[in-house]
């Protein structure tokens, strides 16, 4: 049990996010279509004298490195599932942070998924099968199980119950992540509830979109564009009105569709080809509100080991 283990893990967007009523545990019942995209964090773990987490990359300064870091919480939670009598060394975790932080792309959850997969390998916890890893993941956060899977998948319950969706081919995305706009997920759900109450709207049980499933099965980007939907979008725009402008500029520049990702504020634009993605990202950089612009392809694979180097 020594060496360095590294795991690559993608961010996600939601192609459909249908938010139902609030449950007794305070979570909202969801039906969502997760879609992993090719923006990756890298989580590297190695044995150490004490637990620690270190973050590099463009968003490093926005990631906590104390006990609240979700990758650290994930590693410690997994360590508690060791076989009786086995002593495990603490780990040092290094995160190369490329997924926007507090952006609705589940970057923190991605790091947790990456830490689980990397630490299982590092510690040689062969008894931790995928089912158990998923159970631990669900306890860490609603999006963590999906990031173990990747691809395109329906999320139900509070998002933690994941069923893969058959989706052929690739979708090209341009992502806009506003600087310093980060939104807290609970605040966006609360705003959604507030708007619904204010408008006296009935909240129905969440439903997966049959039209979107058909579009994904056929991998018909125009039909996918038509059926992108996010119940949290209005709340995210209400809290960050600049998102309305971002969406308008992207659509004016020729995106097939634009949608706020999850609880936002990242905005995902769907385009037809890689060339169109380049054109749109150049146009957005020149004409859109200030933000980071990333190009990505989906579906991307979930958390995967990329390196295992045994030390002497
Ligand atoms: O599960 P996770 O820790 O990612 O959730 C963060 C917060 O988002 C929750 O505390 C809750 O306020 C909100 N949430 C929700 N319903 C969900 C998922 C998240 O209300 N299905």
Automatic annotation (TrEMBL):
Domain GHMP kinase N-terminal: 69-151
GO molecular function: 4-(cytidine 5'-diphospho)-2-C-methyl-D-erythritol kinase activity; ATP binding
Keywords for this protein: ATP-binding, Isoprene biosynthesis, Kinase, Nucleotide-binding, Transferase
Biological process terms in GO annotation: isopentenyl diphosphate biosynthetic process, methylerythritol 4-phosphate pathway; terpenoid biosynthetic process
Pathway(s) this gene product operates in, as recorded in its UniProt entry: Isoprenoid biosynthesis; isopentenyl diphosphate biosynthesis via DXP pathway; isopentenyl diphosphate from 1-deoxy-D-xylulose 5-phosphate: step 3/6
Binding site for ATP: 100-110
Known catalytic reactions: 4-CDP-2-C-methyl-D-erythritol + ATP = 4-CDP-2-C-methyl-D-erythritol 2-phosphate + ADP + H(+)
EC number: 2.7.1.148
Pfam family, one: GHMP_kinases_C
Active-site feature positions: 12, 143
UniProt domain GHMP kinase C-terminal: residue ranges: 213-284
Domain of life: Bacteria
NCBIfam families xrefs: ispE (TIGR00154), PRK03188.1 (NF002870)
Record's function text: Catalyzes the phosphorylation of the position 2 hydroxy group of 4-diphosphocytidyl-2C-methyl-D-erythritol.
Protein family according to the UniProt entry: Belongs to the GHMP kinase family. IspE subfamily.
Protein's recorded name: 4-diphosphocytidyl-2-C-methyl-D-erythritol kinase
């Amino acid at each position: 049990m020594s060496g360095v283990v590294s795991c690559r893990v993608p961010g996600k967007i939601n192609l459909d996010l249908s938010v139902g009523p609030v449950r007794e545990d305070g979570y909202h019942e969801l039906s969502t279509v997760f879609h992993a995209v090719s923006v990756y964090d890298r989580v590297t773990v190695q044995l150490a004298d004490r637990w620690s987490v270190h973050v590099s990359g463009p968003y490093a300064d926005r990631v906590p490195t104390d006990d609240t870091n979700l990758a650290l919480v994930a590693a410690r939670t997994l360590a508690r599932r060791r076989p009786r009598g086995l002593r495990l060394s603490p780990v040092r975790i290094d995160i190369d942070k490329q997924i926007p932080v507090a952006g609705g792309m589940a970057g923190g959850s991605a790091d947790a998924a990456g830490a689980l997969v990397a630490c299982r390998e590092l510690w040689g916890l062969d008894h931790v099968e995928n089912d158990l890893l998923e159970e631990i993941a669900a306890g860490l956060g609603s999006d963590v199980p999906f990031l173990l899977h990747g691809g395109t998948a329906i999320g139900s319950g509070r998002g933690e119950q994941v069923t893969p969706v058959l989706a052929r081919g690739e979708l090209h995305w341009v992502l806009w992540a506003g600087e310093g706009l980060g939104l807290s997920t609970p605040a966006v759900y609360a705003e959604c509830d507030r708007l619904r109450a204010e408008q006296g709207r009935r909240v129905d049980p969440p439903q997966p979109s049959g039209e979107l499933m058909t579009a994904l099965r056929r991998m018909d980007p125009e039909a996918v564009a038509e059926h992108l939907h996010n119940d949290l979008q209005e709340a995210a725009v209400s809290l960050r009105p600049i998102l309305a402008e971002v969406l308008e500029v992207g659509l004016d520049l020729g995106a097939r569709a634009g949608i706020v990702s999850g609880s936002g504020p990242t905005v995902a634009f769907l385009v037809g080809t890689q060339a169109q993605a380049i054109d749109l990202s150049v146009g957005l950089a020149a004409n859109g509100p200030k933000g980071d612009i990333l190009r990505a392809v989906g579906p991307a694979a979930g958390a995967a080991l990329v390196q295992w180097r045994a030390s002497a």
